[in-house]
Design goal:
The chain is mainly alpha-helical and 206 residues long. The protein has seven helices and no strands.
Length: 206
């Protein structure tokens, strides 16, 4: 039996015996347990006076969750990047004065979107059905990590977009073409950020 399991069982038995949480913490500290370990063990049991003690829900981690959520966010990032490339290339073509340049980035980006958009939609709807059937999946640690990584990347993209726009303004390079391309980044990255912020806000309590 792992030491963490032994500690959890000890806390459960001590709470069942009527010991207070400060008494349990003092006893464990005297035995050499670190305060963080003690607090984690105590937090695993609800403070409601009930016998036996009521365990709190625990965060889950699984290899299947990692595969599903990592694939979902990789597909999202790949699709979002190529969507920006396609839209910005269209902007360049719209403002071009010569032959318009190459449309190869558009062809490649559309090919990527044809693959990634349906795959992302299917993975997302599949996740929603799974969460609806069993809200316990909201406690997946992998899910939360991937969502926050996605939020971080979207936030950094928005930050970079704002910096580039301000720099262009200060250097006199802020053209209408630049503004439209910056708006493309703002809409795509902002849409992703808003979607997952709302997802976290609406999820069941963990």
């Amino acid at each position: 039996m792992a030491q963490r399991d032994e500690l959890s069982i000890f806390v459960r038995d001590a709470l069942t015996a009527g010991k207070s949480r400060p008494e349990i913490a003092a006893a464990l500290a005297h035995a050499g347990w670190r305060s963080a370990e003690v607090q984690d063990a105590l937090n695993g049991w609800d403070e409601m006076p009930f016998s036996p003690p009521v365990p709190r829900p625990v965060t889950t981690v699984s290899a299947r969750d990692f595969f599903t959520y990592a694939l979902t966010f990789c597909v999202l990032i790949l699709g979002a990047f190529n969507l920006v490339v396609v839209l910005q290339t269209l902007v360049d073509l719209a403002f071009a004065t010569g032959d318009g340049g190459s449309d190869r980035p558009i062809r490649w980006g559309v090919a990527v979107l044809i693959v990634t958009a349906p795959l992302y939609l299917w993975l997302t709807l599949r996740e929603r059905r799974k969460l609806a059937r069993d809200p316990a999946h909201y406690r997946s640690a992998i899910r939360k990590w991937m969502i926050y990584i996605g939020l971080l990347l979207a936030a950094l993209t928005l930050l970079g977009d704002a910096i580039a726009t301000i720099y262009a303004l200060l250097t006199g390079d802020l053209t209408l073409q630049f503004i439209v391309k910056a708006l493309v980044v703002l809409v795509v990255a902002g849409g992703i950020f808003g979607f997952y912020v709302r997802d976290l806000r609406d999820e069941a309590p963990a």
